[in-house]
Amino acid sequence: MLPLVLNKSDLGAWIEALAAQRRVAAPVLKETSPADRTDLKFGWEYIADPAEVRLDYTVTVLGPKKFLWPARQTVMSYQIGADPRPTAVLDHEPHVLFGVHPCDVTAIQTLDAAFSKDIADPHYLARRADTAIVSIDCAAPCDETCFCLDMGSLYPEAGYDVMLTPEGNRFFVEVKTPLGEALVEKAKVRPATKQDMQARQKFAEEKRGNFHFQLPFEVKYLPEILDASYDSLVWEAIARRCFACGSCNTTCPTCYCWDVDDDVAVDLTKGCRVRRYDSCQLDPFAEVAGGENFRKDRSSRLRHRMFRKGKYILDQTGRSGCVGCGRCERACVADISIKETFIQIAGSR
Ligand code: SF4
Ligand code: SF4
Q1: Phi and psi dihedrals of 252, rounded to 5?
Q2: Among 19, 208, 216, 289, which one is least packed by beta carbons within 10 Å?
Q3: Distance, CA 308 to ligand 1 centroid (Å)?
């Protein structure tokens, strides 16, 4: 089927029509450096006005994961006493994540697989089932930290309902699912002409020329490269710089470890159970009963994170634990780069 075309001038009206039916979250401009107006910072937020939406955004500290898997989420409420009556809390409402980059689409597919396997997670899956995804294609890498082409996240074949490709004063609109069809019914689209298709071809060629492989090996070899590096001195060398702050985990779009707290009312009559992001880079993460900590050293924790990203999540879910978005490197105060770490361990075997 030929793609459809939406004029950029009609984008706001489409978003407004969607917002009448679903809560819309999208990238918005957060702040600019006063010294340099080109230093733009973007973030994912619920929008009140379609004019806020910035589909020309580059990177965000946190991805759209936070709408599916919030940093802090009440999962159960209960009363205290002989009849505790625990009740699962499933808070969800129809959403559209509007303007999701291909790497974040791929990361959401990893979360879908992780939260569906073994014991399915009803809290994540309820939100996910209520969420439509409109993706926006990338013409060029966000910055030097991303390596999405290597990690296979630049060209997702699924995981979105609609894909927009920006070109000049129009978007090409690819409808992927029946939900996507329903979303696009609200848009003022027209069939693509021959000239449109030529312009789309030009976009695809320019995109191909703008992205380059950065790892010196194919990603399919990463699990065995990691296996061969388990006892490498590289882990200790890199971990000496690590502050064990956990920022790499909390910004990662595929990390899904959590801890739970009980929040009990002061009169001790009721409470709720809250789960929140946890980080395998923090000292207490691997502490068990009796005070034993099976990943006490920072080097073993750092190695564990790299193994999670490059092997363990893949082994468990069939999907990569890293999509090459570069968020962990951007967030790291010690300039520890997962891409450089993979390159280093490949050379240290
Ligand atoms: S963000 Fe950097 S310094 Fe902080 S835990 Fe991760 S690797 Fe270590
Ligand atoms: S490990 Fe780093 S580069 Fe990979 S998906 Fe997570 S934040 Fe992005």
Answers
A1: -75, 130
A2: 289
A3: 15
